[in-house]
Amino acid sequence: MTMNDPEQAIVAIDDPIVQMEDLCLYYGQAQALFDLTFDIPRHQVTALIGPSGCGKSTFIRCINRMNDLIDGLSTTGSINLDGVNIFDRAVDVIDLRRRVGMVFQKSNPFPKSIYENVIFGMRIGGVSEKPILDETVEKSLRRAALWDEVKDRLHDSAMGLSGGQMQRLCIARAIAVSPEVILMDEPCSALDPRSTAHIEDLIRDLNGEYTIIIVTHNMQQASRISDYTAFLYEGELIEFGHTKKVFTVPVKKATEDYITGRFG
Amino acid sequence: MTSDIHSSIDTLKQHLIYLGTVVEEGIKNSIKAFHTFDATLAAEIQKADSKINALEVNVEEDCLKILALHQPVASDLRFVVTALKMNRELERIGDLACKVADKVILLDAARKHDKNPSNITIPADFEQMFSTTLSMFSSCLDAFVNEDSDLAYRICLLDDEVDEAKRTIRKELDEIVAHDQKQRVYLPMLLSIARGTERIADHTTNTAEDIIYMLQGRIVRHEEAI
Fold this sequence. Notes:
The complex is a heterodimer of chains A (264) and B (226).
Chain A: E1 16-27, E2 30-36, E3 39-41, E4 45-49, H1 56-63, E5 73-81, E6 84-85, H2 93-99, E7 100-103, H3 114-124, H4 130-143, H5 147-150, H6 163-176, E8 181-185, H7 193-206, E9 211-215, H8 219-225, E10 228-233, E11 236-242, H9 243-248, H10 253-259
Parallel strand pairs in A: 4-9, 4-10, 7-8, 8-9
Antiparallel strand pairs in A: 1-2, 1-3, 1-5, 5-6, 10-11
Chain B: H1 4-36, H2 39-70, H3 74-113, H4 125-146, H5 149-179, H6 187-216
Helix pairs in contact in B: 1-2, 1-3, 1-4, 2-3, 3-6, 4-5, 4-6, 5-6
């Protein structure tokens, strides 16, 4: 049942926020990403899928230049955030990481209170007025659907929260600095189904307001929460399109085989 | 999405093909019963309908189990959705073969009341209608088994021929009755058999369209020219 469709495997985006052009990445001599050229739509959820080691995490870590911290890593090509190449010398990496927040696979709250976790980025940014901080804490925790659960213990340690709550706290912390893009690297992989549902609801809720790029190994999750899906295989972008289309009538046979569990 | 989904889909496919062959047998037997005015064979077709109903339920349960346990996507999803729809169409076709058989029984009874049973005049176009409908149905099973979308498209085109044959039969019957009033007694049964056969071709066309969706992901149901 292969498709002989002449349709484009990589769709064009009308209002992109992040644009990759011929992005290649090398760990020393070994090339990990090959000529990625595609656009991420603004204020929508884009899921990255593909087998382990295909370059999904490597790719999203390029977008806020987390990979700068790895020795021997080099890139060619460009990633434009709202028209500006993030690899330009003039780009302030700290500011880039404020604009492009990140939530990791394992929640990583700081060993501080819930309150201090949320405003950590603002404090670094020099904000110290209590009313502004209080307002940000409430707004961010409400946005992350955590407020009702923690409003009476904001000054307790964040380490006492459950795994699902910690992950939502990390999302609140990311939201607090008003990022334009939020990168999520398998944010639910360590959570139970109920906490996963919480995070998925939250992602759907943030959709339309933030641009979210999420790496997931869970096909059902990708199909449930994303508007667009990109399939990477061995460092190459095989297919990028509307999630509904990718999961019902994919253009490429490799995508079909991967999402139906025939390989990978 | 483990490899287990593929064995479940293989089993579903086998069950659906088996249902298809039982229904095909029902169509063939109803045509045969009509040709030979065999009320006994017609009664057997009606008995086989409960078997078709049980097989339909079985296929539906297979589909629901795959949807619930494996959450299929892409070609697997299209296959299961097509199986669900085909299942319903096949069961309806089985019912229509029964309906034809039922009219054959009535036709046979009417002939027995007739002083001269050989008087019955059958419109010639029945022959073409039966052969086209049966060929459409058999091709449909082939298109499903061999994943042949070209064949499925050709089946859709044949439906017009069956519709035309039914219109011709209707005209022929009017002429036969106008010519010989004694033939009026057979008219409702013959019309009903023509209508039933035409409906079998319609449901077969629906099935062919479902197969096109399964293979190409294209919904052609309401397209003017496919």
